[in-house]
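User: I'm putting together a small comparison set for a docking exercise, and I want a reference complex before I start. The sequence is below, and the ligand is fe (ii) ion. Could you produce the 3D structure with the ligand included, as structure tokens?
Assistant: Of course. I'll restate your input first, then give the structure tokens for the complex.
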Amino acid sequence: MKRRDLIKKLGLAGGTLALSGMTSTPVLASALKTLKKKRVLKIAHLTDVHIRPEYNAVNRFKNCLEKIKKDKVDLILNGGDTIYAADYDHIKKERVLELWACWKDSVKVVAGTPMHHVLGNHDMWWQGKGDEMYGKPGVLKMLDMPHNYYSFDRNGWHFIMLDSNHPTSPGMLDEIQWNWFVNDVEKNSQGKPILIMSHYPLLSCTGITDSKPDATGPFKISGSYNHLDIMKFIEVFNKNKNVKLCLSGHIHLLDKVWYNDVTYLCNGATSGFWWEPGDDGKSAYKQTVPGYTLLNLYNDGSFDHEYIKYEA
Ligand SMILES: [Fe+2]
């Protein structure tokens, strides 16, 4: 309902409201809440783009970005696995540069829209030690990221971008990042709602439906499917109720978990089945088709979201 219509319906036009005694009614309280609630950000969350020259992926991704452009978002969040794969042993520097060139060409479509990234497990090139493209610094340079983890404020919300790529136990933060994270949450605990993005899900149910033989951790699920340090996160969230939303990807399956008032959205992959013919004969991975997520964030800490399926 539009604000104007709501005011009319309540007979409150004129601005001076005879509110005494009325605010106790749940209907009016909820109506006033609606009046005060305002969308402050519209965001597109992309993840697992896995861009590559094969399968006409660049043009298909550009079509996706054209759609996002029409959505007129304020911000794009890129959840990692930006390029197809730089992490395998046989990958040469030429291939890494080719993949990043595909990315840079594609994102010209949304030039001017701010974009924030996290590191995926396939983004880092671990060959050629000492090379400017080596490891995490190479990716930070390609994506113009300030650090492998960082935070920022935008329109009354606080955003924390995490690096799930622990050097020995994928799917957890090392001690230095963990201490930074706790400090960052506590520093920003005064009212600002918090959105967290990681590549690996902090908490996800697709870890069960897409389980892998390397299952480890308290739930016998790979750390790349469910953060191994999730119990520590839950403790922090329990003390800091302004943490509202955790975004992730990696699994290529669409999943939503709500636990202790925190929503965990593991969103489907923009590349679907890595741009290849998928499980539906087109481009889906299992039952999840390629897509991106539109998020509306509101000034009262609430949000809504929709997974947009585009034809990839
Ligand atoms: Fe991944």
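Confidence is low (pLDDT under 50) at residues 9-22. The chain has eight helices and eleven strands.
User: Thanks, that's exactly what I needed.
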